[in-house]
């Protein structure tokens, strides 16, 4: 196994990867922190349980690099034995606003804007013919 750099034969004398091979970001074309944001913040969504107070971190523009808000979306255990009613779990998540953990605007992003964006970016007609489309047309 001449030239192998891992396993029982590994030593400091073995051939090491070239600098361009050690750059984990090179193949992704990442050259700046803004590039990381474009690939990870703008492209991903993260579920948050109804009563999870740590969701406040997603909306903390003072602490998050570049002042970003993370695409947090409301999640629940609806359908599980302990959450038989969607409205109760959603009402529980509203406590985050009432307790000052997140703002009204952040709550709207959590339960509507971010999930809406998630579904319609991939398929602009996702809500076509639904109550969501009718509600938005009336507002």
Automatic annotation (TrEMBL):
Protein name in the entry: Amidohydrolase-related domain-containing protein
Which branch of life, at top level?
Bacteria
Q: What does the record give as the organism's lineage? A: Bacteria, Pseudomonadati, Pseudomonadota, Betaproteobacteria, Neisseriales
């Amino acid at each position: 196994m001449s030239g192998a750099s891992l396993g029982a034969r590994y030593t400091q004398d073995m051939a090491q990867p070239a600098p361009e091979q050690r750059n984990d970001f090179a193949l992704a074309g990442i050259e700046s922190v803004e590039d990381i944001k474009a690939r990870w913040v703008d492209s991903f969504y993260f579920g948050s349980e109804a009563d999870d107070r740590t969701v406040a971190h997603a909306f903390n523009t003072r602490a998050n690099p570049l002042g970003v808000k993370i695409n947090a979306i409301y999640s629940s255990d609806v359908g599980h034995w302990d959450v038989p009613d969607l409205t109760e779990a959603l009402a529980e998540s509203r406590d985050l606003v009432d307790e000052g953990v997140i703002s009204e605007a952040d709550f709207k992003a959590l339960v509507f804007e971010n999930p809406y964006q998630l579904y319609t970016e991939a398929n602009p007609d996702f809500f076509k013919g639904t109550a969501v489309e009718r509600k938005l047309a009336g507002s």
